[in-house]
Amino acid sequence: MPRRTPRFTLDRLRTPGRFPGFLKTASVCALIAGLLSPLSQVAAAAEVTAANDYCGGQCSDILPPGENGNATLAQILLNQAFGTQPEHAEDQLGPYANLAKGYPTLTNATINTFFNDASFGVASDQVASTLSPAGRSDVTIVRDKKTGVPHITGTTRYGTEFGAGYAAAQDRLWLMDVFRHVGRGQLTAFAGGDPSNQGLEQQFWRNAPYTEADLQAQIDNAVADNGTRGQQALADANAYLAGINAYIDASDSGRYFPGEYVLTGHKDSITNAGTIDHFKITDLVALASVIGALFGSGGGGEVNNAVSLLAAQEKYGVEQGTQVWEAFRERNDPEAVLTVHDGQSFPYATKPASPQGAALPDTGSVTSQPLIYDATGTGGDATATATSATATATALSSARRGMSNALVVSGQATASGHPIAVFGPQTGYFAPQLLMLQEIQGPGISARGASFAGLSMYVELGRGQDYAWSATTSGQDIIDTYAVELCQDDYHYLFHGTCTAMDVVEQKNAWKPTTADGTAAGSYTMRVYRTKYGPVEYRATVGGKKVAYTTLRSSFMHEADSIIGFQMLNDPDYVKSPQTFQSAVQHINYTFNWFYADSTHTAYYNSGDNPVRASGVDAEFPVWAQSAYEWKSWVPATNTAAYTPASAHPNSIDQDYYISWNNKQAKDYSTASWGDGSVHRGNLLEDRVRKLVAAGGVTRASLTKAMADAALADLRAEDVLPDLLKVINSSTVTDSTAAAAVTRLQTWLTAGGRRTETTAGSKTYADADAIRILDAWWPLLVKAEFEPGLGTGLYTAFTANLPIDEAPSAAHGPTGAHAGSSFQYGWWSYVDKDIRAVLGESVQGALPQKYCGSGTVSSCRDILISTLKTAAGKTAAQVYPGDTLCAAGNQWCADSIVQRTLGGIKHGNISWQNRPTFQQVVEFTSHR
């Protein structure tokens, strides 16, 4: 019988999530009696000897909610009816949540109160089970008692990878199946027509509309281009697939497969009729395309950039309008926080002195290319139409959710003399989680850490025998927009002077109600028109000529290539130093910042296939689809080109410290998204780590505390509010409402400006009124500060490039509301620079004019006080209007983090933290 988890810091969901209203207690009890009898896997405990481990017990990790992401039908029904949890489904959620209030007293000795021991192997008294999957003698899967993490040990390479596949299916089979269907654009047909499913498949399939032949070609090319390692990767993938499919067969015959297959109509709970399709190698590429699009493909947004540039030029004239646009774009802001801060310059995607080939649209001519055709039922109703519009905007924006952070300190500043790292990816919060923990030990593989489910033939983020690595999303521009001139009709274009038909790629989906998803029947066809310059995303005219705007991504048709880099990271015979680490991640074409630490050295490298653009091409805007403006050495048939050399990518070894929170990588290195200015959430880490390093004696605990403190900080309060209050307090505040609001804000600021509970589990913020006031005030003050000077048209265009705010309660990121990750995109830098200029302070990279109150302190003060009074008068219910989880006015709940259900198991929401989902704390004591 599944255990019942104590509630302590968790707030149980009030609604049944993705299984709306179908469970009744009486029917649950009747069903459970008949469902607890199917065979379960039986395994005996045994001792496992750890491989070479040089961390000395000082490696830790955490990945909520829990390792077990599979649940039988009986377990799902129990969870829905009574809140019980399958074993190891959420035992990492409590420790993860508790750090928010527990970090002030953290010591090295108490780190593993909030993290797992990430040492290699399992002590004999901690072995919960040992399994030889499919009866194989060349691999064992040992699971530990505390977290149920699989420790896979193989004596052959094939057996090792077979075990990795089997363990992945044990822990994430349903999730893997969901995401292979997302990657193929088939989610609604597989899991139901819920609007969230429609949006998810549309968002990703628009970016990667691959046919089966395309997916297979990626595999063939990756193998052919990488020699022995390519052949090994193919063999590993096939062994991994064999393990997945062996588990599918075993769980099907033993009737312990995930219960979601019954609830979505794929299996019959009584007769066991129905099938769970085996995985094939092209499914892995489909999965990789989702992960790459979500976390590792910076760029795009050129059409939106063009629209706002034209708006600026319309208001100010071409020359001044361009200057205004560049100031707000902040391509290379001199006040931006940098990861490589030692003065090195890495020019990339900088503004050309004499731009060439620009193809700006005629004003008002831009329309998005439709994705949905022939919609019926719930595939074409008002909700579906709104969902499709949101998915399109998300897919085409350059403001991709970077997430993830890293704090790495050189041994010169630590108490032990060994480097320390606290790092991990913010991949959102899901149930089951997208990532899974594992340890893999076998010929040529020795690592523990996290991998995306269904791609876990190697550890993707984690530790080796004497080194650890992690990544953050970097976002440099590897996507360009081309204007292809149309000929004959709207579906033919000029390619090198020849009228060429666009390729049409379609995916037809239909759905009907199921127990899991009661959405009424519907259908639609997703249709993408592809050119040699990539998929068509917009239609417009340029100088009166009809064009289609396409997006070309350097990783398009190349998602499989990165497998080689991950293979190298797991190979203890390859990664032996910071240099070999950098060499390994150079084989990863996703746009990531990579960090490394061993017992002596630290390192950093920015990965991605950065195309070499033609001379004069400005990467910010669309260019004509002509030979003169194509990437250097571009081969359309394979979408390969000349790429910038490794030395041109931001990189470093043994800098005093590194921080990253998706901020600017290095001087002169342009990122595609807006907002890398004087105030960025990276400052929250930079300020804290810089102080620690200056003081010296950094420990694992002190660096973790710095991360945890930044995770509760309100960026606006910490870095912008002080100057706003300077302006307001430049004379005595006589209005009683405004004065009271100022007092509350100042009190909160003095206390640290954190969004934190009064006590653990209180579900009430300390300084709740001040937080409410700032949440209400920010959008009001930004609009009042900038719209009069910019004009409504340009102000609106700029807000399309960069959202005004990203407070924790906002609906944002890949998981929508309750997503944790916050303060990545917003106008805080603009407000900061403008207010400082009004105060007469020095501003590098200043805006072209003073906007607040037309530049006078007194007029600016009037605007701030007026908007502050309005904000102070807003009730909590107005500021936090409520949703399916939270009642209107429940501030804590509005901010809280929810594990978004992708299956049948629900978890409680936890107090807000802005930190990585998977996180490591590492300090190696010795080296091979």
In short:
This protein is α+β, with helices and mostly antiparallel strands and 928 residues long. The longest helix has 28 residues.
General description of the model:
With 928 residues, the chain is of the alpha+beta class. Helix content is 34%, strand content 17%. The protein has 26 helices and 30 strands. The strands form five sheets. Strands 3-4-5-12-13-14-15-23-24-26 form a ten-stranded mixed sheet, with helices on one face. It is globular, with a radius of gyration of 27 Å.
The share of residues in helices is 25-40%
Distance separating the two termini: 46 Å
Number of helices: 26
- Average pLDDT number: 92
Which geometry do the CA atoms define? Answer: globular
Which value, in Å, is the CA radius of gyration?
A: 27 Å
Major sheet = 10 strands, mixed
Structural class: alpha+beta
- Oligomeric status of the shown chains? single chain
Count the strands? 30
Q: Order of strands across the biggest sheet?
A: 3-4-5-12-13-14-15-23-24-26
| Low-confidence runs of at least 5 consecutive residues | 1-10, 12-49
Percent of residues in β-strands:
15-25%
Question: What is the fold's blueprint, element by element?
Answer:
Elements: H1 25-35, E1 59-62, H2 73-82, H3 93-102, E2 116-117, E3 127-131, E4 139-144, E5 150-154, H4 157-183, H5 187-191, H6 195-207, H7 212-224, H8 227-254, H9 260-263, H10 281-295, H11 302-316, H12 318-329, E6 345-348, E7 367-368, E8 372-377, H13 382-396, E9 405-409, E10 420-424, E11 430-431, E12 435-442, E13 445-452, E14 461-463, E15 467-473, E16 479-487, E17 489-495, E18 498-501, E19 503-511, E20 522-531, E21 534-542, E22 545-553, H14 563-569, H15 578-585, E23 592-598, E24 602-606, E25 623-624, E26 651-653, E27 657-660, E28 667-669, H16 682-695, H17 700-712, H18 715-719, H19 721-728, H20 736-750, H21 768-790, H22 792-801, H23 828-838, H24 857-872, H25 876-879, H26 891-895, E29 900-901, E30 919-922
Parallel strand pairs: 5-12, 6-28, 11-29, 16-25
Antiparallel strand pairs: 1-2, 1-30, 3-4, 4-5, 7-21, 8-20, 9-10, 9-27, 10-30, 12-13, 13-14, 14-15, 15-23, 16-17, 16-22, 17-18, 19-20, 20-21, 21-22, 23-24, 24-26
